[in-house]
Design a protein that fits this description.
The chain has 233 residues and is an alpha+beta fold. It is 56% helix and 12% strand. A four-stranded antiparallel beta sheet has the order 2-3-1-4, with helices on both faces. The longest helix has 27 residues.
Length: 233
Amino acid sequence: MRWLFLLPWVLFLLGLTPLALAEPLGQVGRGFGLILSALLLAASASLFSRFPVAFRVQFFLVLGIGLLAFQLALEGALALTGWGWVQYGEAREYTALGGVLGALALGVAFFLGTGQEAPLLPALGGVGTPEDLRRLAGALEGLALRRPLVLVYLSTSAPPERLQKELRRGDLAFQLSGGYLLVLQGSRPEDAAGLLRRLKEGFPLSAYAVERWQGGSLERVLARLEAETLLQT
């Protein structure tokens, strides 16, 4: 929506309001530096109005960054006019409100973005490595906080190419030292049962473990899955 694209620029201009009421007689260098930072933040916020996520997530992302731009623009304008240190010294304490509200809006965007409307993580283009798993650990932990993921740990020597053919679109697979970790996005434990049934028919599975992951450390849940497969061998 076009108005969402304009929102950060409106907040940026509101932050410059003191410049319309007084001449720049204060700290010129610091003031222009803050205003330039605010300008870049407003430009970044406007780009997020085209971010491919649900509208509610877009709105709070744009609002949060826009409020931070307002905060910096207001601080810069007060520095230029000298109001924050001369006529209205005590009022400067309240200019941090924009930053606080911006941080809260970004927090809301995070919780909405990791909820049921959160986009699936992109496919890896094949079976990932342990390095790929470590790189995606933070994203997986954030997604699991609000959208439970089904993890399947397989103890098998099957080649990655054959395993990849059995996965659905959106599922992720990582080859580890003792087998494979499958991350089934948007699935239920019943879906994992169907996958395991197909794998048993075509792969030499010595052990497996399944868990519905609802948040927490990826390292800990992986350790539990590995321990469960060791008990089966």
